[in-house]
Design goal:
Distance between the termini: 50 Å
Structural class: mainly alpha
Largest sheet: none
Number of strands: 0
Radius of gyration: 20 Å
Order of helices and strands: HHHHHHHHHHHHHH
Number of helices: 14
Amino acid sequence: MEWLVEPFQFTFFRNAVIAAVLAGGVCALVGTHIVLRGMTFIGGALSHAVLPGVAIAHILGKSILIGGFIAGVVTSLGIGAVSRHQKLKEDTAIGILLAGAFALGVAIMSSIRSYSIDLTGFLFGDVLAVSTSDIRSMAIVALIVLAAVLLLHRQWTVQAFDHTYASAVGLPVGPLHYALMILLSLAIVTAMQTVGVLLILAMVVTPPATARLFSIRVTTMMWLSLFWGVFASLIGLFLSYYLDIASGAAIVLVSVLLFFLAFLFAPTQGIVTGRLRRTERRSPTTT
């Protein structure tokens, strides 16, 4: 068991484990409702939209987490405003604002002489460089996300399965939508240092998609998603340490691998297991 204990002798690895668990858990919880509502494209837009906020906060010497969060919220409001136009659909608004926000972030980064040192890590992630103050901020965000999910889980679930019914019974569908967008922005800035803005979407979408192959119950799916998100983060960190590869990429690759294993071998929804069951039913029984 020395291989399991050895990395924990380093402070940077212990910090990385805590950060990865927090980021993986937060993204998985929020991602459950993003997947249920088919809002993956919005998740991709917001994950790229935080970049200009991060860059501007860096220039001003302010918290890049707050800067990224503000940029995410502004982008989500912009998507809502543009998509209200009768001639434009939501996916059009998302595509325009995704490209515009990301281009703005790259333009700002290119104007900073030290951007390759200070900000490139937020494109690709560097969980091994997180500090104690970063972990405190992530823990606060994780508590906020957990409280919001527990409070609004039922309302979001109703809205995901029947938007018309949710409106008919008096649920505030507009505020609920933007509350989920705010929570998604928080999840994104939490995971930013773990896998980078280019790979955050995988952390938001892949664990819930994996969990959905194991259960059709939303509550069970949410907690399974939390498990798969944390599990992938931990295994990815160990692979990053021993194989000397980028931590963010390792975490995402493990998460994607788990999805495809579930896609093939999940007990009830797996492709291979489903075919085996059908073969067994068709085979003649012997007496």
